[in-house]
Amino acid sequence: SSHSKSSSLIRENTKGNPYGVPLEGKVWNVAYRLMSMRKLWVLLMILTLSSVFMVGFGVWLRYGPVAWAVGKEAFEGMRDHSCTHDHDLGKLEISLKWASGLKVPDTLLRPFGMIVMDGDVMDWYQARIGWNVQYGQAQQSGRAGDSPVWDDATRWYCIHNDSKVMELQMWDDNIITSNTYLASVNLSVADFLREDPNPTQEGLVNNKGNYELVDANGNFAGIVHLETRYYPSKDLSEIYDTLASGDILLFSGATVNGNFIKAATKSEWSHVGLVYKESNARGEEEGTLKMIESSTNHAGLYDCDDQIDNWGTEKVSLRDKVYSSFYDKVAVRRLYLPGGHEARNGFSKRLIKFYESKRGTQYEEFQMEMVKAYFSWNTANNESRNTLFCSEFVALAYIDAELLSADRVPANVLQWEFSSESEINLLQGAYLHNEVYLRDVQRYSKGRCYMHPEMCECGMQKYPYSDRYACMVPPCGSIWKLVWGGMIDLGLGFPLEVLITVVGLGWILAGILANIFVFSHLLIWIRSRKKLAEYVAADLHSVMKNPPDSASLHSDKLSNPTAVSSPATNVAKAL
């Protein structure tokens, strides 16, 4: 009777369990049902969960860290803060190299500098100079004594038409209590706005000097050493006739992917190209300015030679490119070549020959090469010369002209290395001037050549610019474009979210789900064996305690041959 109740209990609790052993709990019951499903359904479930997770992660990535990284506002004090409005003369870079002899009543905790421009106090995190400084890292610098290590000591400020006086104030951040004023110095803005038409390479840092600080009572309170660089803002028409072949053009993409490239490379720029000027029979430059580049050309600008919209190396009108509106900032770095007009004409001839040799080369197809460039993992043996990305094309042009060392791997050169963010070492005494920012490059909302075809210098602009290219929230076109990237203005290459999400996390998630499936299957099997062992032990215990009589057993077999003769027989069959 007890054995019949036990068998009934087993049948009630197993509910289709392939092992025929009861395992208590709803979780195990759900696991049984999953284990008894067809393998095809299990595979479809894993793929569905992986897809849902990847799409969800893509949305989170777009609205989360990517939106924060590429959509955050650039405050004054940050490098990428725009100073190209009509009332701006340009951008001033200030580096506080060291400070010594600071007069403090007690221990100096976290000293920092703060700029006051014509009475406007710039007291926020992005504008403070030396915010990350710890005085415990102090080093000997200068005659006056200890100086903090200013490891976050460069800031950028807009200089306006009416800017006259700039005050540098030194403070100590007491973290909890109010900050302590230390000293200050008044500086004339005009002294920092020097534009030398023919500076030496050393002169690119426009101003270096030591400045004496005074405290609130007018007494000497220390010395600071400042280095400044000035980046003027001008209209393209003001400098158009002064540009020459080989000058660097830097672009800041006004698109989702352009912003992502800037965030990923921690740069103000997402694209780079070269000024190109045709030469006459005497080898002298003349005519309208062009730009040569390797680009995805999503504006659809027509090539000046082929009259089609190329995808790769191309020659386009400089004006049409600058005012296509696909870029919110454009800057020029003039190339200085010693040797005067003769040297410049010789360089121009070499650049023309180089471009003709690369004409028609496709944009970079091996996208991992661009990712590897960030880590300088490309080698001369594995890089592809059949396809080129933007900075690789410019680096090759400079190597061909013997302005860059032939030991450099072009595929490891990124766009920001041609900006003042990293002073690239040129050969033959050549160097690049400070950037000149071009004003109001998005004055034509859809693009100059698109809105006014009669103004096009090399053919049409096929595609208009719109805000949706830089959109981080709906409506931004299709959900796939929102999740996987706008695929517009790839600059260095492609949206890295695609690689991270689809290839990386997709495989990781599929592996995790598959392992969970196998591990659960193993746990259920182990637990079922334990339960089975318990029933076997219980039945054996009852057999040993109440052994059946052989005569009655023989009688039961004769009266009912199909009946199970004893618990021990059941156990034997189960085993």
How would you explain this protein's 3D organization?
The protein is of the alpha+beta class and 575 residues long. The protein is 33% helix and 22% strand. It has helices spanning 2-14, 26-35, 39-63, 65-71, 236-239, 256-265, 318-322, 340-358, 367-374, 390-400, 448-451, 479-484, 496-545, 550-559, 567-574, and strands at residues 88-100, 110-117, 120-121, 139-140, 146-147, 154-160, 165-173, 180-188, 207-214, 220-234, 248-253, 271-279, 285-295, 312-317, 327-333, 335-336, 362-363, 387-388, 431-432, 436-438. The strands form 5 sheets. Strands 1, 6, 9, 10, 11, 12, 13, 14, 15 and 20 form a 10-stranded mixed sheet that branches. Helix 3 runs parallel beside helix 4 (65-71), helix 3 (39-63) packs across helix 13 and helix 4 crosses helix 6. The two termini are 22 Å apart. The model is unreliable at 9-19, 136-145 and 477-497 (pLDDT under 50).
Keywords:
alpha+beta; 15 helices; 20 strands; 4-stranded antiparallel sheet; 22% strand
Kindly summarize this structure in a few lines.
The protein is of the alpha+beta class and 575 residues long.
Helix content: 25-40%
The structure class reads: alpha+beta
Low-confidence stretches: 9-19, 136-145, 477-497
Distance linking N and C termini: 22 Å
Overall morphology:
extended
* Estimated radius of gyration: 36 Å
Can you lay out the helices and strands and say which pair or pack?
Blueprint: H1 2-14, H2 26-35, H3 39-63, H4 65-71, E1 88-100, E2 110-117, E3 120-121, E4 139-140, E5 146-147, E6 154-160, E7 165-173, E8 180-188, E9 207-214, E10 220-234, H5 236-239, E11 248-253, H6 256-265, E12 271-279, E13 285-295, E14 312-317, H7 318-322, E15 327-333, E16 335-336, H8 340-358, E17 362-363, H9 367-374, E18 387-388, H10 390-400, E19 431-432, E20 436-438, H11 448-451, H12 479-484, H13 496-545, H14 550-559, H15 567-574
Parallel strand pairs: 10-20, 17-18
Antiparallel strand pairs: 1-6, 1-10, 2-3, 2-7, 4-5, 7-8, 9-10, 11-12, 11-15, 12-13, 13-14, 15-20, 16-19
Helix pairs in contact: 3-4, 3-13, 4-6
